[in-house]
Design a protein that fits this description.
The chain has 135 residues and is mainly α. Helices cover 74% and strands 0% of the residues.
């Protein structure tokens, strides 16, 4: 029983550690840049939140099965495939939640950081620190 609990916990933690940084960057870009297709992208991530876990599981199964497009990798029923499935499930949720936090953040934090000479990475980390409770 404890092995199952540990496996589930470790897969979930690894998936979040992989998905969260990319989701934060995508959410930041969606909140702070104005570009064509931005609203469609926001609507797409909102729609992806409603995909059932069974659909994601079947998709991962079909992709990694022996006759699937990535069957040669032999990842079916491994921790790696479970992590990929968890990433596919959690990424839209992480993007939507962090997008709301970035939109609620004061835009002047980013602008002030950049004006004071911070590189974009450091300005982004400052903004992440400011919205940490919203995340």
């Amino acid at each position: 029983l404890w092995v199952i609990i540990f496996t589930s916990f470790s897969v979930s933690v690894r998936a979040i550690l992989i998905a969260a940084p990319l989701a934060f960057v995508v959410a930041f870009l969606m909140a702070h840049l104005r570009y064509r297709g931005r609203r469609t992208m926001i609507a797409g991530f909102s729609a992806l939140q409603s995909i059932p876990a069974v659909v994601v599981g079947l998709t991962v199964y079909l992709v990694f099965s022996r006759s699937g497009p990535l069957g040669d990798l032999q990842l079916l029923f491994t921790h790696s495939s479970m992590i990929i499935g968890q990433i596919l499930l959690s990424f839209p949720l992480l993007v939507a939640l962090s997008h709301a936090a970035f939109q609620a953040a004061d835009r002047r934090v980013w602008e002030t950081s950049v004006t004071l000479g911070a590189k974009p990475y450091h300005a982004f980390m400052t903004l992440l620190h400011e919205i940490r409770f919203g995340l």
